[in-house]
Specification:
By secondary structure, the protein is an all-alpha fold. It contains eight helices and no strands.
Length: about 190
């Protein structure tokens, strides 16, 4: 998706259109579709993409706070796990590819390989520490060392509940940024 339809049109839109919008703003996730599509039909029209994204974020935060429900936790982890791994070579989402491009950029191929190995090792450590999750951060132009330091701090913190909340907020921040960019192209 290279641009977003008017947010007011989503109330009457079919599920496939809404899925495309959600996939462009967040990442493709059947769990996110199941969570967000019914309220979009029910509560639309939203005043802006910002209010839509914040509403979807609030639904994810509700899942995170439903800690007694294994089903809610599985759905949340399905959503958070839909994000590509940081530094992955194969990233399906055009938005994620663009957002991660500078993390993978280097003039020196040995530097690029070393960086890829560091990120791969951190991703593996993160996923071992937090089964079912992927490290999600709003890169927003931050350098590789800064992102790696954030990843290290979050692994060392070892608090899965805090991690879920931080990942949700990162997904919301990413979606807000994507909406701004996709609306600028429409």
């Amino acid at each position: 998706m290279t641009s977003l339809p008017p947010v007011a049109s989503l109330k009457a839109a079919n599920d496939e259109t809404i899925k495309s919008v959600l996939d462009a703003l967040f990442e493709p996730s059947e769990d996110l579709h199941a969570l967000a599509i019914p309220p979009i039909h029910e509560f639309s029209p939203f005043a802006s993409y910002t209010t839509l994204i914040e509403h979807v974020g609030s639904l994810m935060f509700q899942l995170a706070h439903s800690s007694t429900s294994p089903d809610a936790r599985a759905k949340l982890h399905g959503i958070l796990g839909s994000h590509p791994r940081l530094g992955e070579k194969k990233v399906d989402s055009a938005q994620s590819r663009a957002e991660q491009a500078h993390l993978n950029a280097s003039d020196n191929s040995s530097d690029k390989e070393e960086e890829a190995a560091k990120l791969k090792a951190l991703n593996e450590e993160y996923e071992a520490r937090f089964p079912g999750l992927r490290y999600v951060v709003f890169v927003n132009g931050r350098s590789r060392p800064v992102v790696r330091q954030n990843m290290r701090e979050r692994i060392d913190r070892g608090d899965i509940r805090a991690e879920e909340l931080e990942a949700i907020q990162a997904m919301v921040d990413i979606a807000l940024d994507r909406a701004k960019k996709l609306q600028a192209t429409s």
